[in-house]
Design brief:
The protein is α+β, with helices and mostly antiparallel strands. 45% of the residues lie in helices and 18% in strands. The protein has two domains: 30 residues, no CATH class; 104 residues, Orthogonal Bundle (Arc Repressor Mutant, subunit A). It is built from five helices and seven strands. The longest helix has 24 residues.
């Protein structure tokens, strides 16, 4: 990466990153992290609720991703000493800082989907015509 006429790179956890986007994708890359962040954006969510909202993720993968995101400082976890134990997740202050980025990525994703994909009603399986550019969120 060039910055003020210097060729720079970042070193983090023993890895070399060539640009800031490379660092960002180290933390947010993969199939599930941005999806999990999306479902946490409106507040506290229990583990079981997240699992229901993301049916294709395994419990093991959800647990691994949440623990990594907690370690990275994006998610806070609260365990209630009940039987069975109740575990809730919320975005940390660091996670909240990601929301504008995640929302902009979602906006771009809706644009690309509207332009290139068939939009299907999940309940009926029928194609629907929707213009996301005319709606918010």
């Amino acid at each position: 990466m060039m910055y003020q006429n210097q060729e720079l790179h970042f070193e983090l956890n023993g890895k070399k990153f060539h640009c800031a986007l490379d660092v960002a994708m180290f933390f947010l890359g993969g199939k599930w992290k941005t999806v999990i962040l999306w479902y946490l954006k409106n507040g506290t969510v229990r583990f079981s609720e997240l699992k229901r909202k993301i049916p294709k993720i395994t419990e093991k993968m959800l647990s691994l991703q949440l623990r990594q995101m907690e370690k990275d400082g994006f998610v806070a976890r609260k365990i209630y000493p009940e039987v069975p134990p109740r575990v809730e997740y919320t975005l940390s202050q660091e996670g909240v800082k990601l929301l504008p980025i995640i929302e902009e990525l979602a906006r771009w994703g809706r644009y690309k989907a509207e332009k290139n994909a068939r939009i299907v009603d999940s309940r009926t399986g029928k194609t629907v015509r929707i213009s996301f550019s005319k709606t918010r969120g």
